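Postdoc handover notes: sequence design on the structure in folder B. Input tokens:
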């Protein structure tokens, strides 16, 4: 059986690329296709890629740093891949990969990290954060996003089976595409630090952009001046956040994975204020034994346990006051949280579990096709989580 794996683009190693890595662990003989690939040899080796077939966008100017300039061309580019010689096509899609062209005798399984959020329910936030709310740029941006929605909807029926990376994304898929999907949670690299000494600080880590709500976390510590916060990460909001922060907030900028893991393991708790589709960093923090204080929306509701064997707590809204109240409540109950419970919760999202569930779904799909059954179906076997 010839296998093709299609990934939107390759320029950093993030959560989607870690999923790609595990898919290639399941199908090491697969050929990899991507709109463009500007990874370093080290990153490519980490994922397990020997060679990538890329589109005409590979030679576009500044593709490695300004790929969003080429968003209007991406639907056309993804449709130019000739996959007709493959029996099984697996797309790893957070933008356009699910739109590859396949025939009626091919099986196409799409792992959907999320429908394009900037084109759907987060359009208004995207336009606002990028200064596209008015003027000619606003008109052009709205027209482009409208076109992307039409194309995204049209190609949603292409895959035989859709996989969502969380129940939250499965609901988005149902609402946007009108299709059912099977949930297989992403793989997470589990704890590395062991039982390091707990320090007195709290930690948050993310890209410093508006929708991550790091500003609300920083402002919360203006109310908690006897507590310390360390912010790991960099981004467009970094200078503004540093300027507004009180003296009990320290910024470390971009940190290595090893340093981030140490900060998590040695913190009193990890604070997460974004509404994410899954939120791998939350599970990484729990795997290092850190309780998580998270916004009660999105994927965090599925990964953090706030009941028995508690691994964290929630705040309803990402406002400084509610975050500060959650931190105070956590401090009152801090002795009820253990490293063991946090790590036990994180174990549910291991790479081994991902590979087992992903391979099982593909095998069942192939078996279903082998019986000559209609491929318009949604698998319903029990999940392990």
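Designed sequence:
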């Amino acid at each position: 059986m010839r296998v093709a794996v299609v990934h939107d683009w390759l320029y950093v190693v993030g959560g989607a690329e870690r999923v790609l890595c595990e898919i290639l662990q399941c199908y090491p003989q697969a050929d990899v296709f991507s709109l463009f690939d500007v990874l370093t040899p080290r990153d490519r080796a980490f994922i397990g890629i020997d060679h990538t077939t890329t589109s005409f966008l590979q030679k576009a100017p500044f593709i490695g740093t300004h790929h969003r300039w080429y968003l209007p061309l991406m639907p056309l580019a993804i449709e130019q891949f000739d996959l007709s010689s493959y029996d099984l096509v697996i797309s790893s899609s957070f933008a356009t990969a699910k739109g590859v062209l396949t025939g009626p005798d091919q099986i196409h399984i799409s792992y959907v990290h999320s429908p394009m959020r900037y084109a759907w329910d987060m359009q208004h936030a995207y336009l606002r954060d990028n200064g596209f709310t008015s003027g000619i740029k606003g008109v052009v941006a709205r027209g482009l996003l409208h076109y992307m929605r039409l194309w995204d909807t049209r190609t949603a029926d292409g895959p035989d089976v859709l996989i969502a990376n969380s129940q939250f994304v499965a609901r988005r898929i149902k609402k946007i595409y009108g299709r059912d999907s099977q949930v297989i949670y992403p793989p997470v690299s589990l704890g590395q630090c062991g039982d390091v000494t707990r320090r007195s600080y709290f930690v948050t880590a993310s890209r410093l952009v508006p929708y991550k709500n790091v500003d609300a976390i920083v402002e919360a510590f203006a109310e908690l001046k006897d507590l310390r916060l360390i912010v790991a990460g960099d981004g467009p909001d970094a200078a503004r956040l540093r300027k507004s922060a009180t003296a009990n907030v320290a910024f470390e900028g971009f940190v290595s994975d090893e340093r981030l893991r140490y900060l998590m393991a040695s913190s009193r708790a990890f604070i997460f204020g974004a509404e994410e589709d899954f939120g791998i960093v939350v599970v990484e923090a729990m795997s290092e034994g850190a309780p998580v204080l998270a916004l009660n929306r999105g994927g965090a509701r599925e990964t953090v346990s706030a009941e028995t064997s508690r691994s964290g707590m929630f705040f309803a809204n990402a406002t400084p006051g509610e975050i500060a109240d959650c931190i105070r409540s956590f401090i009152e109950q801090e002795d009820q949280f253990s490293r063991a419970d946090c790590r036990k919760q994180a174990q549910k999202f291991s790479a081994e579990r991902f590979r087992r569930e992903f391979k099982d779904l593909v095998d069942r799909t192939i078996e279903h096709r082998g019986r000559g059954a209609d491929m318009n179906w949604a698998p319903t076997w029990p999940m392990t989580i």
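Context for whoever picks this up: Confidence is low (pLDDT under 50) at residues 380-385. Don't rerun without checking with the PI first.
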